[in-house]
User: Which sequence fits this backbone?
């Protein structure tokens, strides 16, 4: 993401020619020499996939960054499932391990430098975003560690209602 003002020309540009659309790959912001034209019709996937040299370092950096992106396909049952204490602390693309991930985020923030949020403030921000995003009338969200069963359970309290767990008991291995 570019903040402020960027000097130079575009990294990629397109133009229509007699034989079809051409994508021009410019050296970092158009500052180095002539652009390298590539026929759009013959590009297998994307122009970024054809850039492999440091001659186009910004485009190469964008390509590497985009490779790390994950596509989310959230599943309600995965989002609601409790997590064992030993579960990964990062949410999967299906939403699995939401409880342990939220617990990690809340406790890391609370355990950080002076003046950092307490876990309740972190959960309150999640509730605010959830309300904005999907219009859920949530009042409170929490992750309850259960030391007996060794699981984290995600709890949601709707406005004017009692809190309830979003998950049942974990299933066996």
Assistant:
């Amino acid at each position: 993401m570019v903040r402020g003002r960027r000097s130079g020309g575009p990294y990629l540009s397109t133009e229509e020619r007699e034989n079809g659309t051409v994508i021009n790959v410019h050296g970092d912001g158009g500052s180095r020499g002539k652009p390298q034209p590539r026929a759009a019709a013959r590009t297998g996937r994307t122009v970024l996939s054809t850039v492999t040299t440091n001659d186009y370092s910004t485009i190469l950096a964008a390509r590497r960054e985009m490779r790390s992106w994950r596509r989310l396909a959230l599943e309600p049952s995965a989002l609601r499932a409790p997590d064992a204490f030993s579960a990964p602390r990062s949410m999967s693309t299906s939403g699995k391990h939401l409880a342990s991930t939220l617990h990690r985020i809340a406790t890391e923030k609370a355990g950080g430098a002076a003046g950092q949020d307490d876990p309740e403030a972190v959960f309150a921000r999640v509730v605010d975003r959830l309300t904005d995003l999907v219009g859920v009338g949530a009042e409170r969200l929490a992750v309850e560690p259960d030391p007996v069963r060794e699981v984290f359970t995600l709890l949601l309290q709707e406005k004017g209602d009692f809190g309830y767990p979003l998950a049942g008991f974990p299933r066996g291995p």
Observations:
- The two ends are 43 Å apart (CA to CA).
- The first helix runs from residue 57 to 67.
